[in-house]
Structure formats: structure tokens, C-alpha cells
Amino acid sequence: MKKFLVPIDFSDASINAAKYAVALTSQVSEAEITFYNVYSSISLPTLSSKEEGSREQISLNELNEIRTQIGEGRNISLAVEEGSFVDMLYEYVLGHGIEMVIMGITGSSRIRQVFMGTSTLNIIRKIDCPVMIIPAEAEFKGLKKVVFTSDFTDVARTTPFVTLKEIINTFKPSLEILNVDSEHFVELTPEYKIEKEAMEEKLGEYHPEFSFLRAYDFLEGISSFVESREMDAIITVPRKHSFLSQLFKTSHTKKLAYHSRVPIITLPA
Fold first, then answer.
1. What top-level branch of life does the organism fall under (predicted)?
2. Domain end: 91, 113, 134, which one?
3. DSSP state letters, 76-114
4. 98, 101, 226, 250: which sits with the fewest CB atoms below 10 Å from its CB?
5. Does 61 score more than 60 pLDDT?
6. Sign of CA dihedral 69, 75, 76, 78
């Protein structure tokens, strides 16, 4: 995993994500980072071709300024395109062999949370590579401990082990595997034990630690776990009704509290 794409719309959140990406990949051998901007394809009828060209140059100049400020000495390329953000991002990832997208997200208001959440989820669902979502206030302090959330349902078939291993091999964090369910009691059911054995068989080389947490509210459960264990990132496989979808739909601000600090890495199913 060496090619990283950082979408930048010049918001504080996207610039913070760029800082995070530069720090995160500093220890990755031969990492290639691209700062990427898409400007709107909607043009005024009076715009000349020269003025259209200047919009691209303005974006390039601003990206270059960001690169100068935070990426000195790094292998960072710049790319600017015109069009629909999600569509252009999808095509760029596909055409340039991007192995991870690192992007910011903000939530200064309820409306903005919904908008940004929808946009982010559309990107995650469309592109076929991991997406790392960086909270607006997150500061890189290392990626030493990550937690992979699993529903422990047919894990051998539904878990993208190859991609998960690539992330662990690239950044070399310790791995914890978490299942949050409202039905857990003192002892695991035979079904859960079988799924745990399948997970151990696939990931045994990383010596993961397993946790089975009983909680009636999934978001509060994982929030508590992340805080108490001082996790540096959450890894998940988004599916319909997954906690990532819930994250942007919940009306309870307190459930988003942990998200202000901990990045989320989504894996393509």
C-alpha cells in the first residue's frame, strides 16, 4: 500500500486530513501522496475558455501552497479536475491505482453532518479501496492500536482479509477485534466460537485480541471501547444498517463524541 489520495476542497477539515496523511505515511517506504481537488463543472455562460483555465490554475496554486506548508521533502503530486466530485474521484482512483483515500469530514451543524455524511458514504460505497475518514479536530499521534469491528457472521466469506492485512502490514499497529451485540452473556454461543476460530485462522499471525461487548446501543458501546482502550483508529466494513451509516443518521450528538478524535478506515466489501 503506497499510493494515497487526499481530496482537498480547501476547507479546514480537508487541510487537516492532508496534515494527518503526511504524518501517517511518513514511515511508509516509497509512499506516494496526491493532493486532489475537483472544482464544479457548472460554469457561467459568460466565462471564456481563458477564465475556465484560470480556475484550474488557481486550484493548483492553492494545492501547491498547502504542499509547501505541510509536505516539505515528501513525494506529493498535485491533481485538479473539473466535474462531479464523487464521479471524478472514482475515475481517478480507478485510473491511477490508488490504494487508499484519506479524507476529512466536518460536522459544524446538524445539516452539514447529514450532507457530509451522505457524500462520504457515497464515496465509500462507490470506490474499491479503503477510505480513511479523518475527523476535523484529529491530530496524528501515531497509529499504534486499531480495532476491527465485526458482526461475526460468516466471517470467512464476508471479511476482506487481504485488504485488512495490507493495512496492518503497512502501518504495523496492534490489532483488536470487537463484536458489539445486545445478546452477549457470560459465555459465547457455539456459533460465535466457530466464527472466532475462523477469524483466528485468518489473522493469527497478528495475534489479535478479541472482545465481545454487550451493549444495547452500538454507537455508545464502540465509543466506550475506543475511549477505554485508547484506540487510534476503527476499521470497519460498511454494510446496510452498519454503524457507519448510523453515525450520520443519529440525532444524538453525544453518540458522535468519539468521532471528533478517532479516524475510521472503511474496507470495500
1. Bacteria
2. 134
3. EEEEEEES-HHHHHHHHHHHHT--EEEEEE--SSHHHHH
4. 250
5. yes
6. positive
The 10s digit of each residue's pLDDT in 207-258 is 999 998 887 777 778 888 888 999 999 998 876 545 555 555 544 333 433 4
Contacts with 2 (C-beta within 8 Å, 6 or more apart), sequence order: 28, 29, 30, 31, 32, 99
d(CA 211, CA 269): 22
Q: What is the domain extent for residue 160?
A: 145-266
Cell numbers found for residue 126: 462507490
- Structural domain includes residue 139: no
Q: Please check whether residue 152 lies inside any domain of the structure.
A: yes
Q: What is the DSSP letter of 10?
A: S
Q: What is each CA distance from 163 to 4, 129, 134, 150, in whole angstroms? A: 14, 8, 19, 15
- What secondary structure does DSSP assign to 154-171, as a single string? SHHHHS-HHHHHHHHHHH
Query: Is residue 151 domain-shared with residue 41, that is, in the same domain?
Result: no
